[in-house]
Amino acid sequence: MLPKKWHLPVLLILGTFQSSACGSTPNFIIMLMDDMGWGDLGVFGEPSKETPNLDNMAAEGMLLTDFYSANPLCSPSRAALLTGRLPIRNGFYTTNAHARNGYTPQEIVGGIADEEILFPELLQKAGYRNKIIGKWHLGHRPQFHPLKHGFDEWFGAPNCHFGPYDNKQRPNIPVYNGMDMVGRYYEDFQIHRETGESNLTQIFTQQAVDFIERQAQSQKPFFLYWAIDATHGPVYASKPFLGTSRRGLYGDAVKELDSAVGQILDALKTHKVDDNTLVVFSSDNGGAMVSKDKGGSNGPFLCGKQTTFEGGMREPTIAWWPKHIKPRQVSYQLGSLMDMFPTLLSLADITLPRDRAIDGIDLSDTLLNGKNIDRPIFYYRGNEMMAVRLGMYKAHYWTWTNGLQELRQGIDFCRGENVINVTTHDQRNHTSQPLLFHVGRDLGERYPISPDSIEYHSAMKKISKVVRDHKTNLTPGQPQLNWCDTGVMNWKPIGCEKLGRCLPAPSSNPYKCVWMH
Ligand SMILES: [Ca+2]
């Protein structure tokens, strides 16, 4: 028997331990697809019904029909997810030209600024172990490495899996394990451009399952950011999935990702951490219509990746957390990937930083109690607010797809869709009289509401106020996507010396990046 004076502290310690072991500190998994469209999942109406695991995940959890990325392109969307802030604030935009989509190709000089706080950094301070698997895309130079921005582990690549390159004009993209590179795409990690065969999704899935097993054994909370990229061009799938989809190679990739989602959820169940793990599935931007038959489906929505129409930014989203999120729910909450920042921190009982604007909102009440919160969604392209959604109304202040010169070369972000005065090939300023759509009865943004109607005036009155407030309180961050330099490409990734795989780099020659659209 313990001396009497020890009873209270011992009980308190036991109490703390028990509540942690019982699951008061949840684990988080974000499964972020690359260029997957809203219409790619059976549960969202894809007629081939080739996503049984995702459809089941939705049946066991909550389907979010009106959930958005913060940008129609990879890098800014991902920077916004991790910072909870619009790209215009976190620096993932360009001022080289008006309303341009920029990202982080190998030539990019910039990346995620040290001043930005990524939510994994705050989870890490609270005792979480964080792993990113797959594509980082927030800059590839050493100072932007994910292990310097809140992650403890990384298996994946800093850029898209474009290639193969000759390692003279342009290096192949490195693959990292932890701090160091372990090889390069097309050299050590194969993607066959003719057949589309690659076992990368298998590797990324095994990495996830192993991490979950390790963390479950250690009984420490974890955050897994599973950012795999099989549905981004060049699209790939492993041999068992090749040729199995009715939709061609793109569908093969989706089927393999669906199978991987099933394996990851099974791993959570096997290791008995399913009741203590919130899993959110979504995509970084809309399906790439420019990829033609190797791109995703945006369902009933207009255009795709690169545009601020619904097809560019509305994402197939599912939230799953057994015994916390009730099964078979459909939520019409206007959600954003930026909401992950305050939502996950709130669920982990971590205070939000107060020294900066956070654009995401805490959705825990939506996920756990089905509450609906009024909020706007802003659609940015580079340095311009193109559109805003409030309730069922969406107002376009600017419209643009891309220039006619590009269109004539076959680059079409709205393939097969042409809505006069909406899918414009010049940058059209509608600020004095925004184009207004009701996205409930007109999902495809085809029939602008007459500016003479009472409905228009009533909706625009509310939207104008929201836009005014937003712009008044907006302080743009230092743009990170203005400067390029072939000297900064992946010639000498960290760890290349150990492998004897460093490449000779050309001398530095900075120039302003050219963003065509
Ligand atoms: Ca993407």
UniProtKB/TrEMBL annotation:
Principal cellular location given in the protein's record: other
Full protein name: N-acetylgalactosamine-6-sulfatase
Organism: Lingula anatina (Brachiopod)
Subunit description: Homodimer.
Signal peptide span: 1-23
SUPFAM superfamilies per record: Alkaline phosphatase-like (SSF53649)
3-oxoalanine (Cys): modified positions: 74
Residues that, per the record, bind Ca(2+): 34-35, 74, 284-285
Family designation: Belongs to the sulfatase family.
